[in-house]
Amino acid sequence: MNLVQQVKSYDWQRLKKSLKYSLYIITHPFDGFWDLTHEKRGSMAAANILLLLLALCRVLELQYTSFLFMTVHWQYINMLIEVLAIVLPILLWCVANWSLTTLLDGKGKLKEIYMGTVYAFTPKILIGYSLILLSNVITLEEGVLYMYLQYFATIWSVFLVISAMMMIHDYSFSKAILSSLATIVGVGVIVFIFTLFFSLISDGVAYFVSLYKEIIFRLS
Fold it and tell me: Residue 4: pLDDT above 60?
């Protein structure tokens, strides 16, 4: 085996271990998130794959969940928007959290925040795919199980996100909760600023277009 093959084999093995490590994190969050960043047990490649699986879960959920539990009006559905609705909030969360925690003595880097956040959504991925299958084999009367599993996956993932922030930034649990709430506010501020910015750009472009048309009209 030459050097290139050895490198490829090593990378593949490390990627598999990094992905498998997400299963350890969801049952041992405090030790798991500490080792994820400090012991380099996670990887950006694995985090990207998990994010892709999370977005893909949303697409498959829309397509294959039984109509008993989800009504989809396809004329109003844009798959790109659905995917961005999963990916962008996570990315905005990471940027806002990194920006705020640098002012609050947080020790986490942007890369570590991203990995920790995405790994924390492992329960949503595992239970999400399971619910797609489950929805097609249970009746409407048994739908309470479907609903409870959805809530459970969300609560579990939220707890893991807070645990990740706690370990990554070396915060207490209460400070991790407060920083997470502040991060949500920060995400709202970022969205507002971008919305205002693009609104001003749009108004500026519209003004110059109307000015150009007016000049052309008067010269013609």
Answer: no
HSE of 46, CA atoms in CB hemisphere, 13 A: 26
Q: Give yes or no for residue 102 having a pLDDT over 90.
A: no
105-122 pLDDT, tens digit per residue, is: 888 899 999 999 999 999
Look-up of token digits 């507002």: 192
User: 168 with 112: CB under 8 angstroms?
Assistant: yes
Residues 6+ apart with CB under 8 A from 80: none
CB contact at 8 A, 132 and 65: yes
Residue 153: band (very low, low, confident or very high) from pLDDT cuts 50, 70, 90: very high
End-to-end CA distance of the chain: 75
Coil, strand or helix at 172: coil
Contacts of 65 (CB under 8 A, 6+ apart): 131, 132, 135, 136
Spatial separation of the C-alpha atoms in residues 159 and 131, rounded to whole Å: 20
* Average pLDDT over every residue of 198-209: 81
Distance (Å, whole) CA 169 – CA 155: 21
Question: Taking phi first (over 0 means left), then psi (-120 to 50 degrees means alpha), and beta for anything else, what does residue 168 get?
Answer: alpha
The residue extents of the domains of the chain are: 9-219
CA 54 to CA 37: how far, in whole Å?
21
